[in-house]
Amino acid sequence: MVSATFNIKLFLVTLCLVLALYPQQGNAKAIAQKRQAVATIQNNWVTVCAPGTGDKPNQKRDDSVATLNIQNSKPTRTIDCASSTATATVTATAAPDNNPPSNNKPSACNAQCWSNYLWHTYGWGITPQLGLVGIVCILTGLYFMAFGFRCFRATLALVGFVIFACMTWIGLTNNEPYPGYPNQAIVYICVCVGLGILGAIIFMFFYCITLYFVGALGGFYLAIFILSWKDNLVITNNVARICFIIGVAIIAGVSVFLLERYIIIFATSFIGAYLFVFGLDLFVHTGFINGFRIILDHNWWHDVEYMIDVHVYLMLGAVILLTLISCGWQYYWNVMRLHRFFGINVVEAAPTKA
């Protein structure tokens, strides 16, 4: 009975993942035009409003001034960060340009290009919303790495929270209208946290089924991690990426039934390492989170690109290092020292008197 119920639940979750990750359908030409319009507006906005530019190096951004300046701006050349090699492009057409840039001569992505690229990801500085999400991810990651195998119900609750919050974010971001939700930060945080708490309650009580989702969540993050080792991802085809992610998640979930102790240790260690580095990136701003975003965000209004430099490679390497440290710690303490199973307390029987 448990096996049949598990299969039904696994099928429903897989179906939800496919529906959530599959890009919105629409006219390809219209989508390209909309994304180009958004990218042009963003590039101009950065050029006009970036702190440290213009006559007032410390000036703050002003939407009204930015709009006025953009409308009256002369043709300027900015860096298009749509690929790892930047190409100079004209982003305004108020007057003719006698020396148009050539798209056949790409130049190296300079500091301004990378600065604009990071601005489109994080904005300027660390906002309270980014700080809050970063702290939550770091603390959750530390818990998984240190106590993920040791604490049964708390781990299941956090797995449910992460899954429901992540699925909610995917739904919200893929259906976000232009120019965004009213009170966007509040909407994202409150809705994701609210449904995340619901998921935590469900996972904590229905542990016979939700146990397998610990491995599935570890497989989900592992697939994203593998895809993130190349500019604009290792697998470029969107359908193939979705199949790869779902396949790895299902294999990891089923593996819990076969090698429960070892898969749970690895899954909790990897989930914790990935969440810790993800939260850290919200403070240090390397562009690491764009690997996650470009895979799951298919909203045609969002111009998400993923570029890799040495800092992103360091973040990816940190995930591997933290996973190995956590696996070693959890295996030594829980298996070698305490001889524990996940969710089972083994008590040695008292010797009987002859």
From TrEMBL:
<feature type="transmembrane region" description="Helical">
    <location>
        <begin position="239"/>
        <end position="259"/>
    </location>
</feature>
<dbReference type="InterPro" id="IPR040236">
    <property type="entry name" value="TMEM198"/>
</dbReference>
<keyword id="KW-1133">Transmembrane helix</keyword>
<feature type="signal peptide">
    <location>
        <begin position="1"/>
        <end position="28"/>
    </location>
</feature>
<feature type="transmembrane region" description="Helical">
    <location>
        <begin position="271"/>
        <end position="292"/>
    </location>
</feature>
<keyword id="KW-0472">Membrane</keyword>
<keyword id="KW-0812">Transmembrane</keyword>
<feature type="domain" description="TM7S3/TM198-like">
    <location>
        <begin position="134"/>
        <end position="331"/>
    </location>
</feature>
<feature type="transmembrane region" description="Helical">
    <location>
        <begin position="211"/>
        <end position="227"/>
    </location>
</feature>
<feature type="transmembrane region" description="Helical">
    <location>
        <begin position="156"/>
        <end position="173"/>
    </location>
</feature>
<comment type="similarity">
    <text>Belongs to the TMEM198 family.</text>
</comment>
<protein>
    <recommendedName>
        <fullName>Transmembrane protein 198</fullName>
    </recommendedName>
</protein>
<dbReference type="Pfam" id="PF13886">
    <property type="entry name" value="TM7S3_TM198"/>
</dbReference>
<feature type="transmembrane region" description="Helical">
    <location>
        <begin position="312"/>
        <end position="332"/>
    </location>
</feature>
<dbReference type="InterPro" id="IPR025256">
    <property type="entry name" value="TM7S3/TM198-like_dom"/>
</dbReference>
<dbReference type="GO" id="GO:0005886">
    <property type="term" value="C:plasma membrane"/>
</dbReference>
<feature type="transmembrane region" description="Helical">
    <location>
        <begin position="130"/>
        <end position="149"/>
    </location>
</feature>
<keyword id="KW-0732">Signal</keyword>
<feature type="transmembrane region" description="Helical">
    <location>
        <begin position="185"/>
        <end position="206"/>
    </location>
</feature>
